[in-house]
Specification:
The chain is α/β, with parallel strands linked by helices. Helix content is 38%, strand content 22%. It is built from seven helices and five strands. It has a five-stranded mixed beta sheet with strand order 3-2-1-4-5, with helices on both faces. α5 packs across α7 and α6 packs parallel to α7.
């Protein structure tokens, strides 16, 4: 039997947390394009431990008229025009992701999804702009609330950089794989689950009255 406090619905106030990382052609969400997006859904076992669930990953074709900064290529090493990427249009990727997120929300009886990301404002603003650009009406994510693992890490372990945060809680981190949306999402999901579960181990959840 699963206790009420050991459900995602009750743990996060009806929010369904979804871990996301986005790689882009620059830092301006209005003019720079998505190049990669990775998403990991989460679940909670009957004992209340948070774990990774489904993983979705897409290479994205830059939208028409978008700009590409040389600095972004040097940073993430992604060639937007490499045919081996098998990239898809951003709307196709987002609709597929949203469909899975809605299924998971329904399964966990949550009312809205919430983005979990490292320096979450970056990923959130790029995602919301892409939704607007693609004229997608049904967006499962909260329009402004996020869970930022940089902030959580700063509070819990005194670190804000993803690699150092992971290493501080005993997770391995390969800098050679960093700045890939898939790798960074996996590491962010591992970090988020570790922080949430550590809080539970310390007696912080469920809260004592």
């Amino acid at each position: 039997m699963t206790l009420k406090c050991n459900t995602l619905k009750n743990r996060f106030r009806n929010f369904y947390p979804v871990v996301i990382d986005i790689e882009t052609t620059g830092f301006n969400y209005k003019i720079h394009a998505l190049l990669e997006i990775a998403v990991i859904t989460l679940h909670m076992d009957k004992y209340g431990w948070l774990k990774k669930s489904k993983t979705i990953h897409f290479h994205i074709k830059p939208f028409l008229g978008s700009l590409i900064e040389t600095s972004s290529f040097l940073f993430n090493k992604i060639d937007p025009f490499n045919p081996l990427r098998q990239a898809v249009h951003e709307k196709e990727a987002l609709l597929c992701i949203f469909d899975i997120v809605y299924q998971e929300m329904k399964s966990h009886q949550c009312h809205k999804s919430i983005i979990v990301a490292h320096n979450a404002n970056f990923d959130h603003t790029f995602l919301m702009e892409a939704v607007k650009r693609c004229k997608i009406k049904n967006n499962p994510f909260h329009p402004f609330v996020t869970f930022d693992t940089a902030t959580l890490s700063g509070m819990a372990i005194g670190q804000t950089v993803l690699a150092k945060s992971c290493q501080s809680v005993g997770l391995s981190f390969d800098n050679n794989q960093a700045h890939s949306a898939l790798y960074d999402t996996i590491q962010t999901a591992n970090l988020f689950c570790t922080l949430i579960n550590k809080w539970k181990k310390l007696g912080g959840w469920p809260p004592r009255r």
